[in-house]
Write a structure and sequence with these properties.
Elements: E1 14-18, H1 28-35, E2 40-46, H2 58-77, E3 83-86, H3 89-100, E4 104-108, H4 113-128, E5 132-136, H5 158-167, H6 207-212, H7 217-231, H8 235-238, H9 251-255, H10 261-267, H11 277-299, H12 321-328, H13 335-347, H14 352-365, H15 370-380, H16 388-397, H17 412-419, H18 424-429, H19 438-441, H20 449-454, H21 470-486
Parallel strand pairs: 1-2, 1-4, 2-3, 4-5
The structure holds flavin-adenine dinucleotide.
Length: about 500
C-alpha cells in the first residue's frame, strides 16, 4: 500500500456503495477500489424506496439490520468502517462527495428498474462532475439484456432461455475478499443502525426468523457448504417435498447479495461434490430461473403491477378482504395451504412447492388478484425479490410469460398427499391437526367423528372448516377464465 508523505494533501478516497451486495467476497466494486491503493470508504446507501422502487418489507428489514451489523464487523476486521446513509442515491452520493472529497465512486449494479434508472442518473451526474464512476457485475450471471433470441428480442419462454444461458460460456470465476482495506482516516458522519428502526417493535414477530436464519456472508457460506455436503445429492428427487428440507435455502442470502451466483456456480464444479449430474443440472436450472426472472423484469418494468399477458386485464377477480385475511393467516381449512402460510409467517420463508400451491389457491380457488398475494409475500418473505416474486406470482396466476396454464388448478388435497405423504410438514406448522392419522391429515373433513374427537380436532373450532369447496371453486375459476377469453 503506498504511504503518503506527511505534507502531501490527503489522498481522495474511493467511495464504494453497498446496496443489495452485503458481502466482501466476490465483490467486484470493493475489490477494484482496494486495488487502486487509495483509501476506501464503504457506504451503505439505503434508498428505502426513495429511488422510486419498492421499500423492503418487514421481513427484509429485519434481515437487513442483522446483515449490516455483520458487514460492518467484517469490514472493521479489515481496517475499514461502514458509513450508513439513507435517502435517494444521487443526493446521498453528492453529499458524500462534499463531505469526503472523493473523486471516484464504485458500485455493483442493481437490476430492478428503479435501481437501474437511479444508478444510470448517478453515473451521468458523477461523470459531469469529472468524478470517476464505475459499475460492476455480481448479482446475476448474465446481464439481463445480454441474452437475446435469434431475432434479437427478449426470451419469453424459460427453456430456450436456459439453453442460451448454458451455451453462452462459463460464468467468470469469483474473486476473493480483500485481505485488508486502506481506511479513510478523516471522520465521516454516519447514521446509526438503530436510528433506522429496521427491527420490529412490539409485537416482536421476529422470533421464528431469529431461530431459522443467520443473516450475513458467513451464514451464506455455511448454508452453501451444508447444502453441498448433505443435501444436493437428494435435490432432484426430493426438492418438491417440503418436509425434507433438501433445498439450499440460499434465497435470502442471494436476495441481499451475501453470496453471488458466480460463487454458487463455481462451487458446484468442485471435484469433491458427490451429487449426481441430475442433481447438479436441476439445481443449476433453478439458479437460471432467478436469471430468467430478472430477464423478464428487465423487459417488463411493471412486472409487479401489470399483467404480462394483457388478456388478464379483463379477468373478473372477486376482491374479498376476508378471504385474503384467512389465506394470510393460514385459516383456509386446507392443511397444506395453511401450513405454508404459517411457515411463511413464522420463518419468513416458504418451500417452493407450497408457494405454488398457496399462490394457486389464492388466485384460483379464492379468485383474489395475484397482486394481493405478491404484496403479502413482499412484506413477509426474507427472500422477497423484485424479479422472482412478481414473475413467480404471474407464472402461477397464468398471466405471466411462459405461465402455467390457467386451467391447471392445483388440488390442495392431492398436492398435500403427493408431496407431504406422511403429513410431517403439515403437523409441524398446523399442530392442532398433529394427532390426525395420515389418511386424513390433508382432508380432515373426511375423518369420521370419532377419529376427529380422538385427535382432539373440532372443525370450525380448533381448526377452520374449508373456506371454499374445491370442486365448486375450480368450476368458478374455469368459468371466470372462459369469460375472460370470451371478451377477447
Ligand atoms: P433452491 O431450490 O435451493 O434453489 C436455489 C436458488 O435458485 C434459490 O435460492 C433461488 O435464488 C433460485 N430459484 C429457485 N427456484 C426459483 C424460481 N422458481 N424462480 C426464481 N428463482 C428460483 N424466490 C425468491 O428468491 N424471491 C421471491 O420473492 C420469490 N417469490 C416466489 C413467489 C411464488 C408465488 C413462487 C411460486 C416462487 C417464488 N420464489 C421466489 C421462487 C422460489 O420459491 C424460491 O426461490 C425458493 O423456494 C427459494 O428456496 P431455496 O433457496 O431453498 O431454493
Amino acid at each position: 500500500m503506498p504511504a503518503s508523505r506527511p505534507d502531501a494533501p490527503p489522498e481522495p478516497p474511493v467511495l464504494v456503495l453497498f446496496r443489495n451486495d452485503l458481502r466482501l467476497a466476490d465483490n467486484a466494486a470493493l475489490n477494484a477500489a482496494v486495488k487502486t491503493g487509495r483509501p476506501v470508504l464503504p457506504v451503505f446507501v439505503f434508498d428505502d424506496g426513495a429511488d422510486g422502487g419498492r421499500p423492503p418489507g418487514g421481513a427484509r428489514r429485519w434481515w437487513l439490520h442483522h446483515a449490516l451489523e455483520r458487514l460492518c464487523a467484517s469490514l472493521s476486521e479489515r481496517g475499514a468502517g461502514l458509513i450508513l446513509r439513507r435517502g435517494p442515491t444521487l443526493a446521498t452520493v453528492l453529499s458524500l462527495l462534499d463531505d469526503t472529497k472523493a473523486n471516484a465512486v464504485f458500485w455493483n449494479r442493481r437490476y430492478d428498474p428503479a435501481g437501474i434508472s437511479a444508478d444510470s442518473a448517478l453515473k451521468t451526474a458523477l461523470r459531469d462532475r469529472a468524478v470517476e464512476a464505475t459499475s460492476f457485475d455480481g448479482q446475476l450471471l448474465h446481464e439481463p439484456s445480454r441474452l437475446t433470441t435469434t431475432t434479437g428480442g427478449p426470451y419469453k419462454v424459460y427453456s430456450p432461455f436456459w439453453r442460451a444461458l448454458v451455451s453462452s460460456g462459463e460464468p467468470r470465476a469469483p474473486v476473493a475478499a480483500p485481505k485488508a482495506i486502506r481506511p479513510l482516516h478523516e471522520a465521516v458522519a454516519s447514521d446509526t443502525l438503530e436510528a433506522w428502526s429496521l427491527l420490529p417493535t412490539a409485537p416482536d414477530w421476529a422470533g421464528g426468523l431469529r431461530d431459522t436464519w443467520t443473516p450475513g456472508e458467513a451464514g451464506a457460506r455455511q448454508r452453501l457448504a451444508d447444502f453441498l455436503d448433505a443435501r444436493l445429492e437428494r435435490y432432484a428427487e426430493s426438492r418438491d417435498r417440503p418436509a425434507e428440507a433438501v433445498t439450499s435455502r440460499l434465497s435470502p442470502h442471494l436476495a441481499h447479495g451475501e453470496i453471488t451466483p458466480f460463487q454458487i456456480w463455481h462451487a458446484l464444479a468442485r471435484p469433491d461434490i458427490e451429487a449426481g449430474a441430475r442433481d447438479l443440472e436441476k439445481f443449476r436450472k433453478e439458479i437460471a430461473w432467478r436469471e430468467f426472472s430478472y430477464h423478464l423484469l428487465f423487459h417488463n418494468r411493471d412486472l409487479a403491477s401489470k399483467n404480462v399477458n394483457r388478456d388478464f386485464d379483463d379477468f373478473a377477480w372477486r376482491p374479498d378482504a376476508g378471504l385474503v385475511a384467512a389465506w394470510q393467516q393460514g385459516r383456509t381449512g386446507y392443511p397444506i395451504v395453511d401450513a405454508g402460510m404459517r411457515q411463511l409467517w413464522r420463518t419468513g420463508w416458504m418451500h417452493n412447492r407450497v408457494r405454488m400451491v398457496a399462490a394457486s389457491f389464492l388466485t384460483k380457488h379464492l379468485l383474489q388478484h395475484w397482486r394481493e398475494g405478491e404484496a403479502w409475500f413482499w412484506d413477509t418473505l426474507v427472500d422477497a425479490d423484485p424479479a422472482s416474486n412478481p414473475a413467480s406470482w404471474q407464472w402461477v396466476a397464468g398471466s405471466g410469460a411462459d405461465a402455467a396454464p390457467y386451467f391447471r388448478i392445483f388440488n390442495p388435497v392431492l398436492q398435500g398427499e403427493k408431496f407431504d405423504p406422511d403429513g410431517v410438514y403439515v403437523r409441524k406448522f398446523v399442530p392442532e391437526l398433529a394427532r390426525l392419522p395420515d389418511r386424513y391429515i390433508h382432508k380432515p373433513w373426511e375423518a369420521p367423528a370419532d377419529v376427529l374427537s380422538h385427535a382432539g380436532v373440532k372443525l370450525g373450532t380448533t381448526y377452520p372448516v374449508t373456506i371454499v369447496e374445491h370442486r365448486k371453486a375450480r368450476t368458478a375459476a374455469l368459468a371466470a377464465y372462459d369469460a375472460m377469453k370470451g371478451t377477447r
